[in-house]
Amino acid sequence: MAIYYQQIYAIDFALGMIRDELKSQKIIENTVIIYTSDNGFICGSHGYGSKVLPMEESSRVPLIIFDPRAKTSGKKVRCDRLTGNIDFAPTILELAGLESTENMDGKSLLPLLENSKEGGHETLTLMNTYPPAPTTCMSIVSGPFKYTYWWFENDEMKPTEELFNLKNDPLELTNLVQMPEHKKHLEILREKYDAQLQHWKKEAVKGNGYQKYITLFDRHLEAAEKEKALPPRKRKKN
Q: Which of 92, 153, 154, 160 is least enclosed, having the fewest CB within 10 Å?
């Protein structure tokens, strides 16, 4: 943890150095700075120290956009709209005066600099395909809710669903799946999950090794069907 905090301090210091250099070159007023990260870190929460799991500690990251030309520049406006890393490419393209391509799922974040209360996404998908297999999963974030389907199955682990209300339970301590009063929310998130998986199935590029997860993350398939998508298991030698 000491090293972790040292790295955060180093990044903060380096950002100051970059801003100083922009000032010295007199281009600070024509430079947009996007400060973010590719992941957070769980730092012991839930008993884990990883960064790949879909918990809020690792999936939520800082995002600060400073455009000196924007009307809101310097006003420290906060935005609670749902955004993701898929939005960076369309944002940078718009800053460069270019249009996004039709096959991009992301949206430009620049409108949020003008109106922080409108825009963003209704639904975002979180996917982890980084091994080992039990940690791979897919999640749907929509409104205050997050739904996760854990597909892996063996003698110690069975396929599991999670539903959390991030507004009332930001630490994700109470799984709402089995609570009758949240059955409606569960069904809505399941439908959104299935729709996103079908979108992935339609748009995925073949040949990169990710196609198997479309099968593994399908909550309607039995273990025997998913087994076909996995590589043959190695036999132990006596």
A: 154
- Of 86, 121, 156, at which residue does a domain stop? 121
DSSP-derived secondary structure letter, 235: P
Decide which of 121, 153, 175 is a domain's last residue: 121
Buried residues in 30-51 as b, exposed as e (16+ CB within 10 A) = eeeeeeeeeeebbeebeebebb
> What is the number of domains present in the chain?
2
Burial class of 147 by CB neighbour count within 10 A (0 to 12, 13 to 18, 19+): buried
- Mark whether 174 and 111 lie in a shared domain: no
- Residue 200 to residue 203: CA distance in whole angstroms: 5
Distances (CA, A) of 170 to 41, 71, 204: 15, 32, 32
Whether the CB-CB separation of 35 and 62 falls below 8 Å is answered with: yes
Q: For residue 224, what are the CA distances in angstroms to 133, 207, 228, 232?
A: 16, 23, 7, 13
Domain carrying residue 41:
32-121
Which two tokens mark 157? 């682990």
Maximum distance among all Cα pairs of the chain, rounded to whole angstroms: 71
Q: Tens-of-pLDDT digits for all 238 residues of the chain?
A: 899 899 999 999 999 999 999 999 999 999 999 999 989 999 899 998 888 899 999 999 999 999 998 888 888 889 999 999 999 999 999 999 999 988 888 999 999 988 999 889 999 999 999 888 999 999 999 999 999 999 999 889 999 999 999 999 999 999 999 999 999 999 999 999 999 999 999 888 887 888 899 999 999 999 888 888 887 665 556 5
Q: Cβ distance 122 to 196 under 8 Å?
A: no
